[in-house]
Amino acid sequence: MTDIEQTLDAAGVHNPHAREFIQHWAGITGAANVEVVSAEDDDRLIEESLAAGEIVPAGEDLYYSRSYYKDTARTEERTVVATNDPADKGAYNNWRPAEEMKPLLTERMRGASEGKTMYVIPYLMAPWGSPLEDFAAGIELTDHRTVALHMIRMARVGPQYIEGLTNPDRFVRAVHVTGDLENLGQGTPEDQRYFVTVADERTILHYGSSYGGNALLGKIAHGLRQASYDGWASGKFLSEQFMLIGIRDKETGRKYHICGGFPSASGKTNLAMMLAPDALGERYYVEFFGDDIAWIWVDEATGELRAMNPEYGVFGVARDTNETSNPTALEAVGPGTRTLFTNVAYNDIKQEVWWEGRTPHYPEDVAGWRDWKGNLISERPVERQRSSAKEDAWAHPNSRFTTTLANVPNASPDFADPAGVKIDAVIFGGRCSDREPLIRALRDLPDGVYDGLTLGAEATFAAEGKEGQLRYDPMSMRPFMSYSEGAYGAHWLKVLGAAKEMPIFAHVNWFQRDKNGRFIWPGYRENLRPLLWLLDLKEGRVEGVQTPIGILPKAEELRLEGLDIAEADLTKLLEVDVPRWKQEIALREEHLAAFPGLPEEIWEAHRRTASALDEA
Fold first, then answer.
1. What pLDDT score does 580 carry?
2. What kind and span of H or E run contains 588?
């Protein structure tokens, strides 16, 4: 091994606790070399990765890579939260004792990086000067060069971020070892993979993947799981899988900020990157802050509820991203952006990428095109080259792009403000075909938290069996919970209850269908319209209609100029289906009963809703 002391000296890593951590794990993993990474190394790392064939060119300053075909997504059943306190066990966090998981992961990682370089990635998950700065610093050790490239896009990276810490020992210790991907038994009883957050020790140990949140440890493992635990343990903040946007009224100069949670496939990224509809664009401008994580706290000096996106980039799903669904994202990954694409289709000849939904039809000429596994499309039987069958997909359904926030054309100039932004509204939304109206507002804090805890999206036969029944995903945090759900609900009430001005809550649904399966609401850019109504309601410009499930808009209160929508469709979008809601209430009671210690305020909100429906 190269002299680690000299390497760290030359890179400017002088923090003694960081040096001890790096040397300890270099010894365990058996790495042949150690290299400290900063954002300034991006050009060199790209050239090295190109030369090694780890990435290939995909246009002007665009790059493409494939992961191992069994390594394409997060794996919830192999993802564990470990602590030293059994009381941290929840319904969803796959809790295990720290004393069991730490030695297990240490042995899996022992010698597993022999012959490889260990890349040391010091990073910060929030701007310098943030009130949550104490929870933002980390060091990821990885034996995979493209992980370093992704982290440079997703976090603030460089040794300076661990050298100026108030407490030099206060950083997240994150270790990623890829392992022998072809011999890990993925999905079998002999599966060797584990992705463990030892939350009460602020340590992350991930073994057996090089993909996404399994490998970019500053993102989900630190930014969500660890930060959520930190926020609860400190009593200071929430870390949620939320999007965060700003809406600027150019006529009044007023700016509003909305954050919210959406389960998978419920439109979170498209909403976060939304543009105003043409008919409203002269007055309103939507600013992007983030599409995946929000840290939320109450400012001690002002009593304001504030939030920030701790990330520095966007790790977005490529599939179905196009000029209609998300033109903002397409511009953010365009020529010159240094975007990394993963597991989309790639053309060897043209050096370009494509994915299902990128254009209405498959490319006409299949010459040079390879699917996400690297197989030539031209070598398939003709009937399978453009079949649209799931097994014939050109791009993996979880194919991704990684780009920096600075590349997003409507990124807010305030996205890096260490003070965050004041939150006016908190929204939740899941894919629901028949019961949820377009929008319903909730003014009371327990009602809002209750709505978030009962958030879900419709299951399919492949998901949880009963089509039309929700797969509950509390606050959209089901895969990221790090402590018990009862304590989680109490922490929500505590943090937001300290705010001098309460945000307004709402539940939105862009996915109602008619009896023929047609989406009733056009969605995408038009989703700004119900959000404007919500802000009008908060500030008293409209009054809405009180219903058993919240306040719904009157049709005339929605700003529908320039939108061609049938009156019957609008009526359907704004109605309350009481029988379906009564079915849902029974399911919610069963869902919430799985959370021991849930605050009585949440149960009272549940009973109020049930009683109002009974009286309707």
1. 95
2. helix 578-592
